[in-house]
């Protein structure tokens, strides 16, 4: 079984192309000939990429950011309890419903919805997500702390985490540095959440990204946390990126059973990502199969 645990789909593929072109990946330094997917990420684009690489499933990771990506109010580390941007409540709910309805006709696609403490109160998020997990078919949550300008321990996420625990679904977090140095998604900032909410099924994306050297300590201290290989394997050999041996050593240090494969489509394709995972040194056939799908099947409770 092959499962892509980190895939994005855009209602308007022009938006996907815009994000790829205007938000370049710089945290790994320079590397020539990055194999971009070259598409905007429509449903058809995604299904074609999955079929071409022989993938059985993919989690479609939603993310809702307030227009303009406003920062936290001056002097605050967390969003106020009463959302600054509550006027977008219906937009957030509509986006999450779209993710679920878009994925529903396609057996390969598993929808993950999103939350935002600048838009909904903790209680509103809990109730909204309970409905999404209970009635809409959502199977998990995606949070991008840099995009929503919120640290993982923001009190506005309390209801979000309650809903995820109640529904027994995983949360995929973007992890890695941000250009402003705010540290919203550095691997170490997830330690407090993992310690205070050990019941949460946390998956830190990109193996820590450009901060991959800090990942091993978080993994060792919190054995329930999982990690995905999206993006970082594409940047193996970049001037500030890891080597293939670095990635393989980190995966072995974490534990093969705690690592899943993700592509970050439409930036990169499932097929190219899987080829790189297959080429990593020092893994048995059984270990490669675990990373490419079996670990994710267990996480997602797939047969």
Automatic annotation (TrEMBL):
Keywords: Hydrolase, Lyase. This is Amidohydrolase family protein. Transmembrane segments: none annotated. GO terms for molecular function: carboxy-lyase activity; hydrolase activity. The keyword Lyase applies. Pfam families: Amidohydro_2. PANTHER family: 2-AMINO-3-CARBOXYLMUCONATE-6-SEMIALDEHYDE DECARBOXYLASE, ISO-OROTATE DECARBOXYLASE (EUROFUNG). It comes from the Bacteria. It comes from Microbacterium hatanonis. Residues 93-302 form the Amidohydrolase-related domain. GO terms for biological process: secondary metabolic process. GO terms for cellular component: cytoplasm.
